[in-house]
Design brief:
Length: 366
């Protein structure tokens, strides 16, 4: 990849602090945003700022932008069509809406399975359902940063209605064995929800191969604005008792979208996917996106390995998580310095214009 050419598209990378170029290593804060996305958001506010379904030009443009953005996202994750793609304020908000909808078809004593490795955004909405008599069970996290899959098998039973699983960990970089879990849920006709927030920036997603029922991600993790994205298996959203106003379209993908959406940011989501595709090879958009994501991930892992080797050379540093030579791994590292508070480590790094996240931030973002 022509790194200097790509960096030129990101205005934030031109900034310096304390006389140094800024190094962005704070994964939970999201990615930086290229000029193409910034200009697209700005253009929407300049020319097309209106609500949907009106009979005038700006409203009709907004309708076209919304449909085009859904179509681009569907291609990005290989969804069957744009009706599978819903937008929201962020992944967490969409997941809370989904939890309220799903619980209405459950009974006290029904079980939901979550994991100790998951981000709080894929735990909190489900743990809240304990107040309504739903049993929440947790799959154990092993000391090597991976899930205990035997524990997974042991805890799935005839009362399990939903399994919520992260695709990749934003703390350890672990990529979970989603296909293995899907095989377990398929046998018992259990719904599978995948949190792909940390996977989407690094590796290609194919919801049809995953055969999942729900998948959530956030565009701010892959060079876009802060917009939550929900994929629902075709026909499934229409069966859910979602929170919605009487004036809201009752059909997918609108059924779970409450109020007026952030149209400008959603226009930016489309621009983000276009930006990624520019760096790929092929004739069709999907082919370009898969190619680009593969190349991006190769470059990321080269940098992550450099960081890993550098931290490992520090005598008081301990790195957590799976090894760097796995076939599938996110380029994410967690480490600790013996006797030094993580907040203090981040403070010292910040003085050298290195932005890094500490554990509080890892669990507060969405």
């Amino acid at each position: 990849m022509d790194i200097l050419k790509i960096r030129a598209h990101f205005p934030s990378l031109h900034r310096q602090l304390h006389g140094r170029p800024i190094t962005y290593l704070d994964g939970p804060a999201g990615t930086q945003v290229p000029d193409h996305v910034i200009e697209t958001v700005s253009k929407y506010y300049r020319y097309s700022n209106a609500n949907t379904h009106g009979q005038f030009a700006a409203s009709e443009e907004t309708d076209r932008i919304m449909e085009s953005a859904r179509s681009k996202v569907a291609t990005f994750i290989n969804a069957p069509d744009s009706s599978c793609i819903s937008f929201g304020q962020n992944m967490t908000t969409l997941n809370f809406s989904l939890s309220r909808a799903l619980v209405r078809s459950m009974n006290p004593g029904d079980e939901i399975l979550i994991t100790q490795l998951d981000h709080e955004a894929n735990r909190g909405p489900w743990l809240n359902l304990e107040e309504q008599g739903i049993v929440i069970r947790e799959v154990r996290l092993l000391t090597n940063g991976t899930l205990d899959y035997q524990d997974f098998e042991d805890k799935i039973n005839d009362r399990t209605k939903l399994v919520c699983l992260g695709y990749a960990s934003n703390i350890f970089g672990t990529v979970n064995e989603v296909n293995r879990v899907r095989a377990l849920t398929k046998v018992k006709n259990i719904l599978l929800l995948i949190d792909a927030v940390h996977y989407a920036p690094h590796l290609s997603i194919d919801v049809q191969k995953l055969d999942c029922d729900f998948l959530l991600c956030s565009a701010y993790k892959f060079y876009g604005p802060h917009v939550g994205i929900l994929y629902c298996r075709p026909g499934l959203l229409d069966t859910l008792k979602t929170d919605r106003l009487r004036t809201q379209d009752a059909k997918a993908p609108h059924r779970i979208e409450t109020g007026t959406l952030n149209h400008a940011a959603i226009a930016g989501v489309e621009a983000t996917i276009e930006f990624i595709a520019w760096w790929g090879k092929g004739k069709e958009l999907r082919e370009k996106l898969v190619s680009a994501m593969s190349t991006i991930h190769q470059q990321e892992m080269i940098l992550a390995k450099m960081l890993y080797d550098g931290i490992r050379a520090i005598s008081k540093a301990t790195i957590y998580g799976p090894p760097m030579d796995l076939d599938e791994r996110a380029p994410t590292l967690s480490f600790a310095m013996d006797g030094i508070d993580p907040k203090k480590v981040c403070y010292e790094l910040a003085k050298k214009a290195i932005y890094a996240g500490w554990p509080f931030l890892c669990h507060s973002c969405s």
